[in-house]
Structures are given as C-alpha cells and as structure tokens.
Amino acid sequence: MTNRKYAAILGVYGNPSDRFMGCGYKKEQPSVKERIEMASKSKYVRSLEFTTGPGEDVFYDSANEIVQLVKDSGLEICAMNPNLWGYQKWEKGTLGSADPDIRRQAIDYCKQVMDLAAEYGVRNMGIWPGQDGYDYVFEVDYQKQYEWWITGVQELADHNPNIQICLEYKPYEPRTHSTIDTAPKTLLMLRDIDRANVGMTLDIGHALVQHENLGDVISLAQQRQKLFHMHLNDNYGDWDWDMNFASVRTFEMIEMLYWLKRTKFDGWYSIDIFAYRTPQSDSVDESLAWLDTLMNFVDETGQEKFDELISAGDPIANSRFFRQSIFGHYSK
C-alpha cells in the first residue's frame, strides 16, 4: 500500500443514481459495512470520508461500530461531513437560509458532526452547501446571505479550533447559482471569516466546470495556506460528471500535481466520482493508479525541469517534452 495520502468518499462505493435512474445503476445498495470492506481491498486507499448525520453513513448511534470496522480494516477516517444538501428542510439553504431557525439548525447540526469527529480523532469536516444559493433574480439578499455564512462559519470555527473546516465551492447544481461558487469568492470568504482552522476543499471537477485553471487555483490558495483537502475526479468542462480521475484532462492533472508538490500540499487526495456504469472498486483503484502514476512522473521529472519549462514559456518546447517523455520510442 502506498504511503501517499490517498482516500475515497465512502459513497463512491454505493449505488449511484440520477434523475433518470432514481433506483440507481447497481443491482443493490451495499451497506456501510460492505462499502468499508470494498475500500479495504484497495492497494491504494488509506482513508475514508463519511457523510455524517441521522440516517447517514455514521452518527452517534452507529459510531462505535463503524469506527471499529474502519480500524479493523486497516483504514483511517480523514473527514466527517454533514449532509447539507439532501434533506428537504435545506431546500432553500442552510447557513445562508433566510429563515433564522433553519440557519440555527444547520449550525447546530455541523457542531454535532464536529463533536463526533473530535471524539474519534478525525481532523476534518467538509462542508459542501449544495442547496445554498438561488435560482432566480430578486430571490435572495446577496449581502445578507454572505454575512450569514461569515458569522455562521465563525461560530463553527470557534466551537472547536482543532477541527479543520473545509469549504467546498461549486458553480451550480442543484441550485442554478451557488453561494460559494468560485475559488476567488471562496478565498474572499475565508479572508472575511478569518479563522486559522477554516480553509478550502478543492473539488477539481467543480473548478473545471467553472473553467478555472487548477494550477492557478492551487497557487492562489496555497499562498494563503488555505488549501486543506482535495476531491479528485474529471469532466469535459460542461458538467460535473464526476468521471474517473485523469480520464479526460491528463496534462492539466500533471500541472496540478506539480503545483501541489511545489507548494508542499500535505492534505488528503480523496476520490469523489460517480461510478454509474463501471464497477465501483475498479473505478476508485484506476483513478488512484493514474494519480500514483502521474505523481511518479512529476517526482521523477523533478521540479527543476518543470521550472525550466515555465521559465522558458515556450509551448512548442513544452509539447515536445511531454510527447517524448510520455510516449517514448513511439515519438521522434
């Protein structure tokens, strides 16, 4: 098993569904225990992310059993994340809801997840606020919505400064416009939150849909020491397809890994894909095999060579280098 910090979201091993196949694409939904067992057989996966809450992968009523199963399987838990998208009460937002009672429920729920994470030595809580945003013009007060997020996350950060809170942005879906939608806005929000234990989860698929450059985003976030966690997948830039890592944008992934190495990123690389029509375990392992292969390529090439390419700024020379390095004797 690799010593690199490779992880997977436990739900990746489940039965993914979409609005056309609400029953899911697999014959059945594997139990939490079965999904942990599937992950434990991977030669790459070292850690798991759990959706945490009533009826989710793990909560207070099941924590002792589930955490012990993870330990017995030889894995770790790298994050416990609240479900801030899948309950009907969140339909118009969570920490950014115009209803103060809903905002309080969302904050208290996140505190429960933080407390559970702390009890079992889990360092990260990821927040993806899928229902926070708007669909129509004149639907929300942008200033108030932003301020509610600032004060809400500050309260969470102060609740337990030892837990890292990782905000995950996405341009849209399920709302047409998300409150936390781009890397720059996330970094602006992190500046205004102004808490050392609050940072960013970079879901690279979300960045690609926003037509952001991954290396540029990493550079900006790492200059501020705010990149805490990575979610890995891939897409064509038209939708958040959650495809296997490096299956579409291989060269951009190489540059991304160069910048992660150059800026000394030390967080988890967590697979976040939807294996609709492919075997779940094979999809995770092939994604991590590509990650491992590209990391080896970056390591063996060395920072000095990449720095030289960047300094020269010659796209043709860069193209020649990658063609000859990767395709070897097929290339002249």
Q: Strand order across the biggest sheet?
A: 3-2-1-10-9-8-6-4
Largest sheet: 8 strands, parallel
Average residue pLDDT: 97
How many individual β-strands? 10
Q: How many domains is the backbone divided into? A: 1
Share of residues in strands: 5-15%
Can you offer a commentary on this structure?
This protein has one domain (6-301): Divalent-metal-dependent TIM barrel enzymes (TIM Barrel, Alpha-Beta Barrel). The radius of gyration is 20 Å and the shape is globular. Helices cover 43% and strands 14% of the residues. Helix 2 (63-72) links the parallel strand 2 (47-52) and strand 3. The two termini are 36 Å apart. It has helices at 32-40, 63-72, 100-119, 142-159, 183-193, 204-209, 214-223, 250-262, 280-301, 303-312, 315-327, and strands spanning 6-9, 47-52, 76-82, 124-127, 133-134, 164-168, 177-178, 198-203, 227-232, 269-271. The strands form two sheets. Strands 3-2-1-10-9-8-6-4 form an eight-stranded parallel sheet. The chain is an alpha/beta fold and 332 residues long.
Question: Notable features of this structure?
Answer:
single chain; 332 residues; alpha/beta; TIM Barrel; eight-stranded parallel sheet; 11 helices; 43% helix
